[in-house]
Amino acid sequence: MHSFWLSEECWILRLEEAADTEQRIRQIEATIQKDYGEEIVETVSTTQSIGVYIKPSISTDRLEELPELWRDVAKQKVIEQAVVRNVVQIPVVYGGEEGPDLEIVAEHAGLTPQEVIELHTSVIYPVRMIGFAPGFPYLSGLPEAIHAPRKTTPRSSIPAGSVGIAGGQTGVYSISTPGGWQIIGRTTIALFLPDQQPPSLVQAGDAIQFVAVERGEEYA
């Protein structure tokens, strides 16, 4: 376990990689939010670390105390199912204009496009972290049969809502941005919600389940 101040108002805790690291991060984050919510602005977590943004009004003495208290939180035993996951269903139109790389992924896997769709929708994917772009969820659990390499040459622009595969990960482009993932479908569900709090539809520790729909059904 390693911790340090990234800035005057942001403290970082980083854990060693282990089988339960992500669960520990979720538990630490939930405890800090619950017990110290009046003293922090927000927490931002990844698969192995958590950043705690502290309110500017906190005194210098308290700033010295908080990291030690939070390190004690990090030492607590992991409680099974300590954080209840929110499972969000995402309707996706696969292939065609919405998923121009579906056939590429299918050919790489030695499968039909329909088999790729069936495998991709067969899993409830844990959200490992939000990153790369605002609201972009990195998801684990992609069936190994449909792992696919990134594109050799990234696209200059990928529409918001595009569902992609890169290596053993899958995710959803939350905003229009350049990117090199293999795009197999698209959703009309907005993942980045700048006028809401929190501004992301899903958070680390939630889960996503993709549902295949026909064009037009995603608006139903």
Automatic annotation (TrEMBL):
One of its GO terms (molecular function) is hydrolase activity. The keyword ATP-binding applies. The keyword Hydrolase applies. SUPFAM superfamilies: Cyclophilin-like (SSF50891). Residues 1-202 form the Carboxyltransferase domain. Keywords: ATP-binding, Hydrolase, Nucleotide-binding. SMART domains: AHS1 (SM00796). It comes from the Bacteria. NCBIfam families: 5-oxoprolinase subunit PxpB. This is Carboxyltransferase domain-containing protein. The lineage of its organism: Bacteria, Bacillati, Bacillota, Bacilli, Bacillales.
